Amino acid sequence: MKTTKKYGRATDRALGMWVKLARAHDTMSTLADRNIATFGLTTPQFGVLECLGHLGEMTIGELGRKMLVSGGNMTVVVDNLVKLGLAERFGISDDRRKIMVRLNGKGEKLFQEIFIKHAEFITDLASVLTCREQEELARLLKKLGTSLELRR
Fold this sequence. Notes:
The chain has about 150 residues and is mainly alpha-helical. The protein is about 70% helix and about 10% strand. It has a three-stranded antiparallel beta sheet with strand order 1-3-2.
């Protein structure tokens, strides 16, 4: 049973797609966040660990751009990873204003231990779709995201 008025075929279709996308995102995000919490990390902390683990050292600004968050928020996340003994800051000799961040030995070890577990969890969540369906959904979401990015 539909709970909305009819706004026309194109609008009803777009609204239905948006609601389904939002609900799927919310559910998958909630499940992924719960999985991340089992590692004793917040989702932003896990995101930084993953980013540094895959891409290597970078500035806090670069981390923020990769993770789509502000530099101030990223500074707090990095501060907490440093306090947990998982990451370290260091300067560059030719530009003392530029502070880099990298995983230390403990952070790298944790990344190696937990990322594959999280990846396997996400693989299990996605397994309701066939390989072809996952590829098609990824293609469609990229198309949607890329085209919407142009409207910003």
